[in-house]
């Protein structure tokens, strides 16, 4: 961290409870429900400097800062948010939300269904990106925010930023869509289904009601994360970090861990299975699959984007094959055709899809430059 960059410091999560039913795309009216969120910086008198951070599949509301009882609990985008950082809390009031269906405090499969007093489990409804955006809009209303200075997200978070700009065109000044796509490819849907099948076929899944059995479908969740993690990295990045290194320096002629990359993936799978909920993983990947804002506009993305009144920053990374630059360029072309102002950055990186979480200097410069312009608008 440079001398001009600081952490937002110790933060505290907050809860917002809602009793008005939320009509979901699946036909269910969810009520009551809770959203867990955090804020950083100060909302100005005009309430014009608010920035919403939308999280990706495994993300949550704890975006920046640390908790008082844990020095290692840095937010998942702490390197991007804070005084002097690209999302500068000297100028912006930043809001992070754990989406409905999550497993970090918002209502989700592991939380108690007030009607039964038992975990929702398999009965928690499937969610879509528009459902999340509607829930986030209600939180914005609660916070007195009529219009976001910017809505920002990477991957699944970028999809939410894009949906915000279409569904609530008057409430988003800037949408930053990073390492994302206007809809998933068939290959991406296939990866998600294989990951889900790993969970669904785990004997300890119990049809999603494993809470009542006092078990966790750890094997399935572990495999799902290992598969997903492979797609978040690049071949060059894995080769540079692990290559074909053997842990012992020689073949063991067995099926236990021999290569360093195997050790790394198993570690990531074990860690993830200790802190994430299997039902949430299923729900989040399905929301990814369903995302397609053009669907409601006769499959015409340009027509969907013509509703927007936002300015856009679209960013991609050269080594990201899960959400490749081709998909970002597809979105940029549609924005141009819809006569929407858009800036595009294609960043050289070896970090694969995970690059949106990293600090590649060209990426940081792009974010800092664009958001400095947003901050200047807020201060004007």
UniProtKB/TrEMBL annotation:
Annotated binding of substrate, by residue: 225, 354
GO molecular function, one term: homoserine O-acetyltransferase activity
InterPro entries found in the cross-reference section: AB_hydrolase_1, AB_hydrolase_fold, HAT_MetX-like
Signal peptide: none
UniProt keywords, alphabetically: Acyltransferase, Amino-acid biosynthesis, Cytoplasm, Methionine biosynthesis, Transferase
UniProt cross-references to Gene3D superfamilies, sorted A to Z: 1.10.1740.110, alpha/beta hydrolase (3.40.50.1820)
AB hydrolase-1 domain segment(s): 49-356
Site feature: Important for acyl-CoA specificity: 322
Gene Ontology, cellular component aspect: cytoplasm
Main location per the UniProt record: cytoplasm
Catalytic activity, reaction form: L-homoserine + succinyl-CoA = O-succinyl-L-homoserine + CoA
Pathway(s) per entry: Amino-acid biosynthesis; L-methionine biosynthesis via de novo pathway; O-succinyl-L-homoserine from L-homoserine: step 1/1
Active site as annotated: 155, 320, 353
EC class name: transferase
Subcellular location: Cytoplasm
GO biological process, one term: homoserine metabolic process
EC code(s) of this entry: 2.3.1.46
Annotated transmembrane regions: none
NCBIfam families, per the entry: homoserO_Ac_trn, PRK00175.1
Subunit structure: Homodimer.
Family, similarity comment: Belongs to the AB hydrolase superfamily. MetX family.
Protein function: Transfers a succinyl group from succinyl-CoA to L-homoserine, forming succinyl-L-homoserine.
Name of the protein in question: Homoserine O-succinyltransferase
Naturally occurring in which organism (per UniProt): Paludibacterium purpuratum
Organism ancestry: Bacteria, Pseudomonadati, Pseudomonadota, Betaproteobacteria, Neisseriales
């Amino acid at each position: 961290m440079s001398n001009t960059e600081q952490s937002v410091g110790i933060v505290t999560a907050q809860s917002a409870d809602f009793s008005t039913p939320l009509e979901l795309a699946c036909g269910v009216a969810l009520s009551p429900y809770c959203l867990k969120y955090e804020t950083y910086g100060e909302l100005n008198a005009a309430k014009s400097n608010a920035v919403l951070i939308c999280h990706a599949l495994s993300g949550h509301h704890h975006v920046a800062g640390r908790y008082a009882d844990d020095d290692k609990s840095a937010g998942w985008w702490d390197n991007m948010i804070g005084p002097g950082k690209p999302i500068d809390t000297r100028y912006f009031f930043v809001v992070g939300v754990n989406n409905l269906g999550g497993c970090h405090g918002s209502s989700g499969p592991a939380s108690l269904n007030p009607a039964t007093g038992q975990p929702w489990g398999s009965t928690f409804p499937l969610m879509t990106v528009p459902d999340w955006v509607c829930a986030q809009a209600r939180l914005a209303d609660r916070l007195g925010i009529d219009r976001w200075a910017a809505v920002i997200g990477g991957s699944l978070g970028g999809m939410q930023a894009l949906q915000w700009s279409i569904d609530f065109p008057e409430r988003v000044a800037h949408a930053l869509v990073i390492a994302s796509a206007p809809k998933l490819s068939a290959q991406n849907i296939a990866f998600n289904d294989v990951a889900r099948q790993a969970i669904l076929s785990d004997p300890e899944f119990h049809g999603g009601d494993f809470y009542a059995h006092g078990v966790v479908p750890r094997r399935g969740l572990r495999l799902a994360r290992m598969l997903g993690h492979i797609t978040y990295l690049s071949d060059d990045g894995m080769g540079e970090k692990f290559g074909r290194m053997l842990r012992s320096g020689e073949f063991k002629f067995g099926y236990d861990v021999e290569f360093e990359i195997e050790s790394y993936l198993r570690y990531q799978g074990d860690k993830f299975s200790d802190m994430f909920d299997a039902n949430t993983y299923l729900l989040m990947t399905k929301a990814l699959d369903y995302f397609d804002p053009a669907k409601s506009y006769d499959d015409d993305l340009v027509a969907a984007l013509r509703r927007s009144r936002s300015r856009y920053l679209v960013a991609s990374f050269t080594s990201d094959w899960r959400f490749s630059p081709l998909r970002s360029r597809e979105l940029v072309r549609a924005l141009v055709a819809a006569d929407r102002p858009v800036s595009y950055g294609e960043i050289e990186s070896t970090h694969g899809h995970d690059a949106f979480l990293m600090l590649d200097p060209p990426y940081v410069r792009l974010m800092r430059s664009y958001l400095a312009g947003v901050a200047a608008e807020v201060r004007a």
